[in-house]
User: What shape does this take?
Amino acid sequence: MTCREFIEFLWRYIEGNLSPAERSTFTAHLAKCPDCVQYLQQYQDTARAGKVVIAVADEPVPAKVPEDLVQAILKSRAKAV
Assistant: This one.
């Protein structure tokens, strides 16, 4: 598996929709490619941060969510209204 193929399979991996053979190939790539490990981690962190930001407004944003990201999303929401 190449890094480009890794990215094509990423969403299915996260959703748990890879066949056993595909998952094996995917995890084998992760075992030898630190760049893709980092990419996967950043992707997951971004997805979690996005969920936090769109959560109920009364819930506090976790401290580890970058303030500039929170402000950018709030600015974007204001433009949409």
Notes: Residues 3 and 14 are 16 Å apart (CA to CA). The chain has a mean pLDDT of 86. The radius of gyration is 16 Å. The chain has one domain: 3-80.
